[in-house]
Fold this protein.
Amino acid sequence: MNLIQPGLEEHTLDFLLRLQEEQNLQHAYAAVPWADIMKSLDPGSAAFFPTAASTCFFNWLGVEMSSGPATFRNIEVVDAVFSVTAPPFANNCALRRRLGGDEIVLRLRGAVLSIEELRRAALKIEAAAVWLTEEANWMKPVAEYLK
């Protein structure tokens, strides 16, 4: 969500529709073999690698992940749904491999993140997702949540 900035006066519903359009584009174009692409670049492009590696390489899992194994050689499906309302936090996670439904699946990974940092991040993301999806907020500017 932080990569797709809402307009200052953009209504929440318009923002959600724009997010969905972006998701459709990612589904169509983002599933690429990044390792192969990086290997195919000429050695003069080496200066580009750190910049590319510090961004999020997004591989949209797509429909094939909802019913079967990955089509990518090295994909690691470790999406987890964390229930932050039922303790203990670390034991409440479930593997999800289907699209649709009313659950939001996030893959939070980071070498510097502790369980507590992951928990705080998940709570913030959960709060944002709940606010965005409450029908009462759909005609409000997204900026109201961001204040």
The helical segments are 12-29, 34-40, 48-53, 64-67, 115-133, 143-146. The longest helix spans residues 115-133. Residues 58-100 have pLDDT under 50 and may be disordered.
